[in-house]
Every structure is written in structure tokens, then in C-alpha cells.
């Protein structure tokens, strides 16, 4: 691991390999920057990586991380705890932009240029999303809006990943790893959870009708019960027999007719009428076990073999016992809830 200081204007580089411990690297598919944390252990006069300093990290000849110090904490025992983020952290910058119709790549290239970060479109989408006004939103949110719309229309999942010092737009799964993580190979522990807390098996699309009042009032803001009525259309799934009625309501899309309301209800039901299944895996470390890739999981205790299981989040703990903690998506491939 190396630290390059820019504060003295000379770009001094420090080799931290002999004094660093507790190295953790995290990647997350949920529009979060890659994070590297570590501790510096020194007997006296610690080398403090100041905010903005560049930290680079390699493991077994692989380029793992290139980023910047965003936080450091000096403790009385001369330990310095450091938190760094990769270049995608600058996509948390906020801005106001009127987007014309275009692809995810159009937005991605635009915001990366505005953020001043090196970037690359690895997998180019062709679907164009409609024009949109984004006022005071982060660059992450602006790209996410296009990603969600593209996923709904094409079933293709795109995501942002920082490949060392280049921020990339990729399509998932980026790699289908040939390795198998199982009860008898590489896996050291697991947890499998199923819940229906955010599930809906009945979706009702609501249209509110309000009759105009003859009296004009600048202060009247609440709906008048005498002049307000609701029309609706619903879509229901067979899971009501097993789970009971789990209903959710949404407002109809602007100017939608009855047929479009029916389609809206069915589309929302398709997304909501499933149990959330989450699998976490503890396993031996491998540098390709990162968010956006897929790997086959075999768990004898559950009698399950999950081929090309999506990695949503990966935490790497480097050291003598290099290991990973993975959060996986089960059952819905890359089309999980937004």
C-alpha cells in the first residue's frame, strides 16, 4: 500500500506496507463508492495520511484500489484509522440538470465530465429514456433514474463500478465466475433469510377526481369530501392464498386511460409480488468476488445450488487469512426491487 501526499506540492510517496493492518475493501451495487479502510500502527510519530491524499493498494499483483483519504482518526496509542473512497465518490456531487432523451451512457459520460473523473463505458446501452428534470440531485441519482427505467424496459441491469482509477459503466453480470463456493469448497459460513415485509400481492392504481368548487379560497388546501371521489383498478396475484392480502396503492400515471391503468397495476404487481430472499456468504478471499459479478453457490444444508448468483455487496478482509463476506440476491437475478 502506498500513500501519495499532495499537500507539500511535490507528490511525495510513502510506502505503508510495514505499518498497515485491518485492511478492508468494500464494493456495493447500490450506488455507493468503493471504500477502503485500514489502520496504521506505529510506535512513535505516525505518518498521517491527510484528507485528499491518494492511497493505492495492490494484492497479489492485482490492482485493487485507487482513491482518496476522506477521514482519518488519530488515537492515543499512535494508531491512525483511515477511510478512503474511490473516484466514484465524486458522483455524490449535487447539481441541477435538464436531461433530454438519451441513454444511460449519455448521462454517465456527462456527469463524469462534470465531476472531473476518468471514466469509460464498457457496455453501451441502446435504450433511450425520456427527458427529465433533475433539480438538486446527486449524479448517482441522475444515473440511477436512467438505470431503473432501462431495467424496466429491457430487463438489462447496468451499474457503476470503479476499476482502480477508472469509473466504468457496466452491464451485470460483468463476469460469471467459473469457481464454485460451497459447503465443501471455500465457504466458511452462510445465512439465508426470506421475508415478505415489503411484498405486495394486490396493487391498486388510483385515480382521484375532484369536482371544482364555485367558491374560491386561497387557504383551502385539504380535499373536500363532498367533491372528491376515487376510481381504481387492481391486479392480484395467487399468493394471496398463502400470504393473505398484502395491498399497495399507487397513483395512476399522468393522463393514463383505463387500459394503461390496468397495465400499470400488472407491471407493479410483477415487481412486488415476490418474497425477498437474501443470502450472505463467508468464504475464502478472491479478488474477483466483487459487486456486479456472479458466482455459483452450493449449500448442502439447504439442498441448493444457485448458478450465477448475483453479488450485490462484497467486503474483503486482507491479511494472513484473506476472506470475503458477500451479500447475494436470490431468485430474482438482477431484477431486484429498486
Could you characterize what this model shows?
- The chain has 338 residues and is mainly beta.
- The longest helix has 16 residues, at 139-154.
- The strands form four sheets. Strands 1, 2, 3, 4, 5, 6, 7, 13, 14, 18, 19, 20 and 21 form a 13-stranded mixed β-sheet that branches.
- The chain has four domains: 2-87; 93-172, DotD protein (Phage tail protein beta-alpha-beta fold), CATH 3.55.50.60; 176-196 and 275-329, Elongation Factor Tu (Ef-tu), domain 3 (Beta Barrel), CATH 2.40.30; 202-211 and 224-272.
- It is globular.
- The two termini are 36 Å apart.
- It has four helices and 21 strands.
- Helix 1 runs antiparallel to helix 2.
- The protein has helices spanning 104-115, 139-154, 240-243, 258-272, and strands spanning 2-5, 12-15, 20-28, 32-41, 54-59, 62-74, 79-86, 94-99, 119-121, 132-138, 157-163, 166-172, 176-182, 187-195, 202-210, 228-236, 247-251, 276-284, 294-299, 304-318, 323-329.
What is the structure about, briefly put?
The relative contact order is 0.13. It is built from four helices and 21 strands. The chain is mainly beta.
The end-to-end distance, rounded to whole angstroms, is: 36 Å
Oligomer designation: single chain
Compressed to H and E, one letter per element, the order equals EEEEEEEEHEEHEEEEEEHEHEEEE
Average of the residue pLDDT scores: 88
